[in-house]
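Example record

The entry below shows one chain as it appears in the dataset: sequence first, then structure tokens.
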Amino acid sequence: MVIFQQPFRYAGLFFGISLAAIFLAIYCWPLFDMDFWLETFTLLISLALSLDLLAYGLFRTRSWWIKATALVPGLALVALVFALVFIVHAKYQAGASIHVFTSKEDHSNNNSRIIDLAYMKLSATYHSAASPIIYLAGGPGWGGTTTLITSGRAPLFQAMRAIGDVIVYDQRGTMPWAGDWLVCPETWQPSNFHEAFSTMRSLKEQSENINSCANQYRQKGIHLSSYNTNNNAADLEALRRHLGVKKISLWATSYGTHLALAYIKLYPQHVEKVIMHGVEGLDDTLKTPMQIQHALEKIAMLAAQDNTIGAHTSNLIGDIQELLDKAESGKLALKYQNNNVTETIKLSKFELQFYLSQLLGSAHSSLSIPARIAAAKQGNLSGFRELAIQMRSRQRESLMPYFMDCASYASPERLALIAQQKPHTLLGDAINFPFPDICSAIDAEDLGSEFRSPAKSDVPVLFISGDLDARTPIENAQQAALGFPNAQHLIIHGAGHGNELFLSSEKILQTMLEFMKNEKLSVAEIDIPINFLPLDSFIEK
């Protein structure tokens, strides 16, 4: 089909129309849950225009540069449209549909502004009387739909459809297609790229950027102090009413478990079952130095026994202390290539503490620490280069995690415990940076001691923890379980935070399904392989 017989100048117009049609279709899906045939028709129009542009470039001109100019965007458009058609068909084959409901921005204010919130519904594979299962993503700041698409957990979502409808919920402030997406329009970059990282300088620059961004949103009428976990829980209750069901089951991870516990406290009568991966209790927002110390000591013990890295890390804790002392004296610097020019970055003690704390998140990154330290002991700091450059690179912030975490904050007892433990641990409280100091620089409301008091309920709960998870350790779940007499706990030996609590063993999904079906759990503990990275991963030749 070649509709257009005019000179090549029209091809640009058709190219623009094709792009507009595609982006209009993408933009409309989450907002209006369009009928399958309407979505497909929109994409087919885009495909026709794309093919016409491609045909013009190939057959209607003898100029090779025109052929090439039309061929590249034409092929790109054809490929994109075919991909989108595939996604549309896959979406409907999976029983998925996207919906929007409304909620109050501030549930404590009867005159509050109304906001839109979105969710994807994965319909049950058979007619089920079970309560819908609502997935609560972590962060805070991750959208549920983002997790479904990018995390590799899609098979688990599909498997849970055998229990009932699965609701993949995007919490307030997390995604652009409904409500207010609280991503800052401007980026910022820490100053003094090559100097040792300064916490005071970084806090000043970061708080200035956050406040500038926050003021722009406030000028649009957005009440940022309403972005807290209590209002997030009230949104979840609005979703339950929108679904028209008496009870819901919650499937949560990381910050999502924090939200789930808040919902259970506020609306216990509407909860049927709960699964929590990596538990963050209501007073666990700030991590304690000792939980990080214990995680590091466990890695050191395992590394000393390992055939791959053990010969190089017989005293990992001592090696880390030696490296931190060197950084504190100003004698630690790494080199990197920038446009064929060798440049140097000085590393501070706190910076190393922060990097090691962050690496203790997932098991994969935790198991890289011994090799990084062994290489650094030999004078090769390549294991910290990427982290140092990333720390100093241009940043784009989202306000949602700052206001959520500052509102949850910490009890006086928790703050005192952190201060008490900090001097007696290798990495101090670097895991929490820039919290809690950043909270005094932004206008976030502390939810108070009542919010942070433990949740108690007789609802059945399955806690899932990894013994290499320094962010949400086993002890968090054990403490939370004191308020849940019908709780069960699955411990995964060798798992850290994130996907390892979902995908590291087939037995995890098996246990989840057994729990949801009220069956006896076949396992209470799972062992997964522990594979340390070898030394040559961070030795440059």
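Notes for this example: The first strand starts at residue 96 and ends at 104. Confidence is low (pLDDT under 50) at residues 1-10, 26-37.
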